[in-house]
Design brief:
The protein is α+β, with helices and mostly antiparallel strands. The chain contains 8 helices and 11 strands. It binds fe (ii) ion (FE2). Fe (ii) ion (FE2) binds next to loops.
Length: about 300
Amino acid sequence: MADSALVEIANVQSDRVRWYCDQLERGRILFFRSVPFDFPQADRDFLLSQKQTGSRFHKNISYRPGQDILKGVSSDSPDRERLHTIMRHFSQQAAEFIARLLAPYATKLKMDFASFRPLEEMNRDLPLHKRNDLLHVDAFPTRPTRGARILRFFININPNAGRVWNIGESFHSFMPRLAKAQKINPPFRSSFVRRLIRTGATLGLPVTERSRYDEYMLYLHDWLKESNDFQQNWPKQQLVFPPGCAWMVYTDGVPHAVLSGQYALEQTFIVPPEMFVMPEVAPVHVLEKITGMQMG
Ligand SMILES: [Fe+2]
């Protein structure tokens, strides 16, 4: 990988907002040495203190901005209210910042969930498809995007240790070669089954209506984790995100693996296809070219 994967942003320049979107869409990571908005030390300390709460230890806390709901903390926990306030504040701040930094997206950017990840990532005992330490691209089983992209903003609030990632080449670069070298055949639903599911969804049944794109990306997520060849032989590089830094990346387009790190915050955004500044490098476009099929 000849190009540097990281683009460091020291301060936001309003005449470069389109370029920031362009760089992200091409698979670069925008990197900030410190959190680019107000995130009080007292809030960080409170989140870091979550490790010492013994039986009240929280595995993964998520926040849903649309409904202002906190998940992953028991309702009788004395920490609940403060955690909710901190996550709400983080989520709002991240949204305001992204709308300014990535102004071309601002009008149609959709906020997805935020999360706090207090567990040490090294040596977690997880089933293969759930492992974070294997290279993969993100796809959401229950929240299909139909070709929209998954943009994630992270903060490493750990004051003592970096968060270590491996990343692979960007989607438009590795995927055409991978599809040529390997048989990747997602079991697409037939149009009949697709219609049935759509009907079920309109009737309020608990079914997830996925496009071909979502089916392909979910299959690819698992396929990449299962492939020893991809994990070991395809180009990758290690990055260390130091204490207190922030970064953002399209995690559906940059294969990533978290090797170690503890205490990260993350806010996810969904960017619809009509907002892409470089539509030709978007995974939906790349897959349409590879398969010759309509994906969205
Ligand atoms: Fe991921």
